[in-house]
Amino acid sequence: MTKTKISLLLIALLLSVLIVIGTVSMVAGAEAHAAEIDHSIMTLSEAATITENCTHIYETEIIEPTCTEQGYTLYTCKLCSDTKKDNFVKENGHNYDSFLVEATCTGKGYIQYICRTCQHKYQANVSQEAGHNFIEIVVPSTCTHKGYTTHFCVTCGYEYSDKFEDEKGHTFEDEKVEATCTTRGYTRHTCSVCEYVYDDKFSDALGHDYQEDVTLPTCTTGGYSTFTCENCEDAYVAKYTDATGHSYEEKVTLATCVSYGYTEHICGVCTDRFVTDYVLPYGHEYLDVVVEATPESAGFTRHICIMCNYSYISDIVTSGDTGYIPDEEPPIEEPPVETHVHIYKLQIQDNAKEKNFIALRVCDCGAVKNSGLKVLATEDEDIFIELSMNEYGKVDYSMLNGTYTVVIINEKGAQLKNFDLTVEGSSENPPVLPDNPSDSNTPNIPDDTQKPDTPNEPDIKDESQVPNNKGRAVISIVLFIVLILVAGGGIAAYIIIKRKKNKK
Asked: 480: which DSSP letter?
């Protein structure tokens, strides 16, 4: 036999066995089902027999009616569970609440009914959707973002976009920034549309190129070198040296008849100065010259100092008198017409101890003008302080402390004088002011124990012996008038005497 025939025979035998097994199983199942049916019939029969023979004991339960079902009384036997119903009650029906639901852009409108009892609900009077109410918002394209149109519903907020446009890209303008001593150089690209900026093409910082400027030391200040960058003007100071100190030379000024003598110490380097060894004026030594009176002129005594050639006149007499001119009232004459034109010059005299100075405009004739002046002080030429001046021209600077530039201007705003003024708190050293005028009548006399700051020491005159310029002018005028009167009286006397002789 071939292998194929043997395989077919084995398959046929296997199928036969399976069919036999299936048949047996079906028969056994049918018998078991029949037995169950018989058992059920027997159980129902037994229950019916039990119910018919039960003495019922019922429990009562009232079932309330609902919206859709009847109510009733339910009786259930506690022994056999038999039930029965009676006392039926009609169903209640629904108790609806209603509310309106408005239509939306995409949803329908309707009236919603909901039962308060069982929450049953239904809808009625359904309306169509309202639809969207769009507005268009156009967003233009930028250098880096696309443009588009947005459709926005103003009712519900729904939106969508369309009509897209590509971004435009940057429009750059280039600026080359050169390197400095401390910062790098670079090229800056700036978009002319949106102002976006970026830098590239960097170059290194150049570094400083310092040049040295040497400041030599002085008598009172140290020296140093200032290093300044030629490119950016950055600067620093180094190489400090000490001050050299003063190198004083002595200059002796001898005393005169009316002025003090003193020793002046002047630094040959910086002209710093102080004065010591004051000597009092030794006064005049006069030679008295008597001039006799004549018929044509008055006599007088002239006192001439043989040391300084100063002179004055006293003891005026007329011809024939043996003494002084009688004290008679001179005739009153009309004052001459004023032909003098005042020429005022600004004079400044300091009082350092009291921290004030006097600023007056003075004419050579002695006339004084102090109105219309304004005095300003400044430390940095930006902020000016106005100093008060009283009616006598006195300016108070006690509120200042430091070094100031003082500017004096007139009523027209013209600058008359400016000078430096140093005020150091309660220091006794006087501030630096311009030299006192040479014709000042009341110069300051420095203290022998201190070193003055003023560059020139004025001559000091003994006012008890020397009349001032104004006094001299008055005396000269009086003497001139007296001489005229004496001469006139002498001529009149001469004429009278001659007439008397002729008569005789």
From this structure: H
Q: What is the pLDDT, as a whole number, of residue 151? A: 92
Task: Say how far residue 203 (Cα) sits from the centre of its chain.
Answer: 37
pLDDT tier at 453 (50, 70, 90 boundaries)? Answer: very low
- The model's pLDDT over 260-297, given as tens digits with 9 standing for 90+, comes to 999 999 998 888 999 999 999 988 877 677 888 888 88
**Separation between Cα atoms, residue 403 and residue 431, nearest integer Å:** 9
Cα torsion through 442, 444, 445, 447, rounded to 10: 150
193 and 208 in contact (C-beta within 8 Å)? no
Query: Is the pLDDT reported for residue 333 higher than 80?
Result: no
Give the type of residue at 414.
A
C-alpha of 206 from chain center: 34
- Please answer whether residues 93 and 115 qualify as being in contact, where contact means their C-beta atoms are separated by less than 8 angstroms: no
d(CA 307, CA 19): 180
All residues at 6 or more sequence positions from 349 whose CB lies less than 8 Å from its CB, including other chains: 357, 358, 436, 437, 440, 442, 443, 444
**Cα distance between residue 304 and residue 72, in whole Å:** 166
Q: Tokens 């140290």: give the residue.
A: 222
Supply the DSSP symbol for 389.
B
Under 8 Å between Cβ of 241 and 224? yes
Alpha helices in 292-410 (DSSP H): none
Report the candidate in 181, 186, 231, 232 with the shortest Cα–Cα distance to residue 206.
181
State the pTM of this model. Answer: 0.28
Cα separation values, 372 from 360, 407, 412, 434, Å: 11, 14, 9, 21
CB-based contact 357:373 (threshold 8 Å): no
Nearest residue to 165 via CA among 147, 151, 139: 147
For the record, the structure tokens of 458 come out as 């004025």
Write out pLDDT tens, residues 398-438. Answer: 888 888 899 999 888 888 888 888 888 644 444 444 444 33
The C-alpha atoms of residue 395 and residue 376 are separated, in whole angstroms, by 10
User: Residue type for 81, please?
Assistant: S
- Measured CA to CA, the distance from residue 45 to residue 56 in angstroms comes to 19
**What's the gap between Cα 78 and its chain centre?**
103
